[in-house]
Every structure is written in structure tokens, then in C-alpha cells.
Amino acid sequence: MTDPLSHSYYAATANPWRPLRSTADDLECDVAVIGGGFTGLSAALACAERGFSVILIEREHVGFGASGRNGGQLIPGLRWTTSELEEEFGRERADALFDLCWRNNRVKARIENHGIDCDLKAGHLEAAWTPKDFDAMQREAAFLDTRFSYTTEVVTKSAMGAHISSPLYHGGIHDPQGGHFHPLNYAIGLAKAAEAMGVRILENERVEQIVNLSDGSSGLFTTRDIIEARYVIDATDSWIGEVEPDLGRYTVPIMNYNIATAPLANADALLPSDAAVADSRFVLNYFRLSADKRLIFGGGERYSQTPPRDIAAFVRPFMAAVFPQIADAKIDYGWGGAVAVTMNRLPHIGRRGNVFFAHGFSGHGALITTTAGELIAEALAGTAERFDVLASLPSRPFPGGKWLRRPLATLGLLYYALKDRLG
């Protein structure tokens, strides 16, 4: 289908891709994966590496959803800080979560192993919107260092010019283990690697229902076929409610919008260290430079599914507030998409019988999604210890049922957005 939100810089600069098969000759497999984003692709690839036969079904094309439209920011960890995780879950679980979500960079490993051309760059800066935010960042940096021997750089307000040419921020934390990349080209690279391992990728085919078969396997009813599989991995994220409505109750979609300027002569002066940047606001700004020196900027959220008529005009004021020196810069691309957000901003991962699922990465998924897909493959192969670390994270559905869930969630989100404005 034609998507009004798909006019992205990533789509315009994507590496060539066409699946080897438009249909599957054999509609039986060990593992059926639903969804061609980072989670589904990494799960399919990891399952194939373990010797399973795999069919991946994608409603549109590889990387169509958030995996191919996001800000391209690689932020280690989860939405909770390590100190929050330890306070809530205790030392042992915090250690396990840290090892998986901070120390274990599976995206970099996949890029290196498969030679994926996706403009990978190192460095991520969290910028403090208020002095109080900077104080909290300094405490967390000290905790990371003393508790986990994980080194970050505390950047004072006076030193921020080494990273960002903007007067707005009160300091920050630079994490050299973070970074940024071209997300759609990473998805395409995963797809090519998966095909090389024998994964059959079916694009433009929608899964309408998962049913349990009498022999204990599952049947997937799609728009064209019936696929029989021993195991199913549901990696549809924002669309999970269309396949499994009860799982859809655990997230609400938040619309995010990005722009890409024309190439900038002063790009390096805007972000001298070439790190990706995200600030500490609840409705955050996040931005970075592309390989061809455009500023890719995300700002503002909408809680309606209807996009603004002019995405560039919607995002430009946020960019101009951070970088007044390019307030009138030409904008070549504007796009958007839905981010699936959970109640507590932690991902919802689990297993029900022979169906595995992972969704609700809450805008923090460019790194953890690859890990989640690989952990599902581990569990499916019989080693569930690391999968259980993520599957044990608490989760609960949004209140309000089918009709009130989104309005009630929107009220809560608007409250926190208002706190941003009031400082």
C-alpha cells in the first residue's frame, strides 16, 4: 500500500533489495516469523544459523515499520537506568540485564559478521534539558562506573560545545559504546544474511490468524497461503494487536516524526564529535548527522494516528529551537511512524505455548531488538536462561479495554508532555 509517512531519507538511500522468492514452494517449516523488522529478521537469521527451516512473512516489505524509519540512534540499555533496575529488581537481575542490554552489542557484531553497509558510527550523547536532569545523569554515570566498570564521559555545560553547537543544554553524558546508523540498510543487510542462511522471506503477505493444529504445531492463515510451523515468532510490534488482539492491550502506538535537511555546509560545526544526540525531555528531541552531512532530526509527538499535513513544518520549530543557526535550512525529507509503548517503558517479551513474542520497545529498540530476536532463537532451541531474563520483566495491559485504552493512555502522556513545557 502507499504510505503517506514513508517519504524518508532512508527509503531514498536504501541499498538494493528484492526477496529471492515471492512465494514459498514448501509451506511447512520449523519456524514461522511474522514481521520483517529488526526483531523478526534477527530471530529468523539466528534460527536458521541453528539449523531450523524458517519462513518470514512481512505484510509490506523488509524494514517497512519502525525498524526502517527510526532516528537511527543506537542507545545501549533500556528506558530504565541501571540504578533503577537494581533498586526495583535486585542486584542479581540487574547484573543479568546489564550484561544483555548494555555490554552485549549484537548489532555491531551482526554488522561486522555480515559486512552490512549501513553507515555505522560510534558515540551517543544524552543531553540534559535541566540542571536537575544533569545531576541525575552524573549520579548514573558514577553508578555505571563503580558498579559495572562501564565508562561514560560526563560532559559539563561548558564542555558541551565539543559535541553540540546549541545553547539549550545543561551538560550531558557521552557513551562511546552507543552510536548511530542507517536503520533501513541494516534491516536489508539482516534480510540478505538471513536469505543466505536459507530463510524464505515472503513480502506483501499479511498474517490474519494463528491457529493451533491437532499435532501441536501452528497454522498461519495469510492473505495468500496457509503456513504450517512447529514454532511461531510474532515480531509485529505496533501491529501485534491485529494478529493477537490480547497482546495488543499491552502497548499503545505513539506517532513520531523525522526530517532530513539538505546536505549542510556547516554540518560538522553543529555536531563536532559526530555523536547521535537525544535529550532528556519526556517528549524528546533526537538528532544526528547522516553520512552525507544532513541533519536528521526527530521532534514532537502526536497521540492521534493522523499525521500532520506537512511533517517538515511540524518538526522544523523543534529543530530551530535547538539549532537557530539553521532555522531556515532546506528540508528534503519528512516522514514518520508509530512507536509501540508499554505502561512501564520496558519491552514485553514472552512465550505462550509454541508462540514467542517481543514488542513494546518504547522508542529504545534499535539495539535491544536484535538481542531479543537472538534470545528467542536460543529459547526455541532449548536454552531459555537468557531469554527468561527479558521475559521476566514486569508488564501489564493498559487500562480501559478496547475503546478507552488509547484515550486514557493519551491523557497520561499529555500530562508528562505538559511537565516538559513547565520545566
TrEMBL record:
Q: One GO CC annotation, please?
A: cytoplasm
Presence of the UniProt keyword Kinase in the record: no
On whether Chaperone is a keyword of this UniProt record, the answer is: no
Report any Pfam family annotated for this entry: DAO
UniProt xrefs under InterPro entries: FAD-dep_OxRdtase, FAD/NAD-bd_sf
The GO terms describing molecular function are: oxidoreductase activity
Ranges of residues in domain FAD dependent oxidoreductase: 30-378
Gene3D superfamilies reported for this sequence: D-Amino Acid Oxidase, subunit A, domain 2 (3.30.9.10), FAD/NAD(P)-binding domain (3.50.50.60)
What keywords sit in the KW lines? Oxidoreductase
**Official protein name in the record:** FAD-dependent oxidoreductase
Q: What is the lineage of its organism?
A: Bacteria, Pseudomonadati, Pseudomonadota, Alphaproteobacteria, Sphingomonadales
